[in-house]
Amino acid sequence: xxxxxxxxxxxxxxxxxxxxxxxxxxxxxxxxxxxxxxxxxxxxxxxxxxxxxxxxxxxxxxxxxxxxxxxxxxxxxxxxxxxxxxxxxxxxxxxxxxxxxxxxxxxxxxxxxxxxxxxxxxxxxxxxxxxxxxxxxxxxxxxxxxxxxxxxxxxxxxxxxxxxxxxxxxxxxxxxxxxxxxxxxxxxxxxx
Length: 192
Known about the structure:
The structure is a single chain. The protein is 28% helix and 29% strand. With 192 residues, the protein is of the alpha+beta class. Strand 7 and strand 8 (140-143) form a beta hairpin. The two termini are 26 Å apart. Residues 155-192 are annotated as: Disordered. Pathway: Cofactor biosynthesis; molybdopterin biosynthesis.
């Protein structure tokens, strides 16, 4: 039997080569932590209906890892995570290739979902990556700016500092009646 490690396992990796999401999940599950939920988000390079041939992603080595590590630390402070992995590719990527992987593990699903969403909202709007589109005709499609929707998604977390906070808008997910125990189809509770 593996002994659980002290503190959450946090992995930040920037890479040019493709990553294996299944292997990354296996590594988290092999830690021996009492994981009840593992949320995985994989972002892919889109083709925009064939208009895009490639996406070129640039970053400042060292700076990008440091910035992402600071956000990961905020996530493990805000939610009781058991593991968090953030992998992001750089270089030239073709449509369909994986760009980013965020894995968040916790005892419960709400914390894992919230942490993964928080990290992705940061990555989409503030992470120090620069993305340039290469169009299907070979021309330069220009640099990609953060969208207003990405900025709004990140802003919603600013006032949600409690480590028990779930994603914004999920306040009613756990009704008071459900907090005392699970309910069966007839509405009867068990003693869990």
